[in-house]
Amino acid sequence: MAKVQKAFFCQSCGYESARWLGKCPSCGEWNTFVEEVVTKGDDKHALSFLSPGGAKPLLIDNIDIEQLPRIAMGSGEVDRILGGGLVPGSMVLIGGEPGIGKSTLALQLALKNPSLKTLYVSGEESAQQIKLRADRLGGQGSNCYILSETLLENILTHAQELKAELMVIDSIQTLASKRIESSPGSISQVRDCAAMLLKFAKETGTPMLIIGHITKDGSIAGPKVLEHIVDVVLQFEGDNHHIYRILRSVKNRFGSTAELGIFEMMGTGLREVSNPSEILITHHAEQLSGIAVAASIDGIRPFLIEIQSLVSTAVYGTPQRSTTGFDIRRLNMLLAVLEKRAGFRLATKDVFLNIAGGLKVNDPAIDLAVAAAVLSSNLDLPVPAKCCFAAELGLSGEVRPVNRVDQRISEAEKLGFEKIFVSKYNQKGLRTPKNIELVFAGRIEDMLQKLFKPSNNG
Question: Which has the closest alpha carbon to 164: 196, 206, 194?
């Protein structure tokens, strides 16, 4: 007979304790422990999806990896992020904020593969609601089965009877198992359901796409152990006020985590953006001050982004610092460098910075473009047209080199830019492009003289 007992779990990392603790010894968070009822079932009643006898040990030299071909998902961006397609028996976790488009992405992937027998399990919507969304997306769902169910045992029974080749779970926080007495979405329920789904996926070779909600602090809701259980973690990011969505690989056991895909949210679903640089750069009819273009790299994909800045006199004496898509602490550091090394009085001025398109960029190679945008707004002089930047700015005012500068230059050259500012320490081994001029700078003063002197003289 199953034994019922209570335990305390950390809501941040899933650490289990027999008593309540003020501070979690695992993650160090305070006041995160909650009490839950845990049912300890007998091991002989555990579900098994293998043939009698279970798995057998294999010699590593005799394992044939050619027997596991990748499954194309019908989306070039998703296949590239996954490392070439979906691996049979793998579990992929898609996390994102509410309303960002996780369900739309999962259903769109299911409809794009009519050759795969897909079981779409929804614990949040009815079958009629999913049908309405499928009609709007316009996919071919002749081989896609919809199941509105939250009990895990029933879901696995239907999956076995159907012999599904792909499963979509929307979402893991809505599932519940008979083996656990606590409510759906609790630490123990999420962990047990995820472990049972992983067992089913590995033993039957059925790949799974699992949707997970995001908490207010930006982490996957439920225990942190959920990210350790799955094979791939994809973060779906974006702003509800913008049409662009970013699918970022956070963890991938079958490929690189340095991958990123950009989608455009439309009325008919998500559209892949094959060349994000052309969309993220605004083509202005006239030159405007406070705008600079940076050659950035996220993952292995280079793209150009537009940086907008506004510098104005502080009205109330205390200057404001506000950023959108950029680290405000790094902005304060760059402003201090510009004041100390370049002589610009920015301590008494408001500075606002925005990354166009709703993107969040952490690439240090956009430092020079940020500095150029801030100084352009401060001087009210536009940055010369067809000019971009790719360099990091050090605390002593030196223009530091960045990695993979060749790819950044090639992307700028492909989009028709005529001049790019890079560090003079990047000259070694750098090829000379045909259609774009390389401007080398060693310090921030060099960049300012080469950038704004022609405008002053003109």
Answer: 206
Which residues are registered as beta bridge partners of 310? 352
| SS3 state at 404 | coil
Q: Does the structure show a pLDDT above 70 at 340?
A: yes
d(CA 82, CA 111): 18
Q: Are 408 and 452 in contact (CB under 8 A)?
A: no
DSSP for 11-35? Answer: TTT--EESS--SB-TTT--BS-EEE
User: In residues, how long is the chain?
Assistant: 458
Report how far residue 2's alpha carbon sits from residue 139's, in angstroms, rounded to the nearest whole number.
Answer: 46
**In angstroms, rounded to a whole number, what is the distance separating the alpha carbons of residues 415 and 437?**
14
AA letter at 422: V
Give 33 or 377, the one with higher predicted confidence. Answer: 377
Distance of alpha carbon 26 from its chain centroid, rounded?
Answer: 25
* Contact between 156 and 167 (Cβ < 8 Å): no
Question: What sign does the dihedral 416-417-419-425 (CA atoms) show?
Answer: negative
Q: Is the pTM of this model over 0.85?
A: no
| Higher-confidence position of 147 and 223 | 147
pLDDT digits (tens, 9 = 90+) for 59-112: 888 877 665 678 888 888 899 889 889 999 999 999 888 888 899 999 999 998
The span from the CA of 169 to the CA of 12, in Å, is 22
Tokens of residue 418, six digits = 């005529």
The rounded distance, in Å, linking the Cα atoms of 354 and 270 is: 25
Between CA 60 and CA 289 the distance in angstroms is: 62
How many Å apart are CA 29 and CA 187, to the nearest integer?
16
What DSSP designation does 96 have? Answer: E
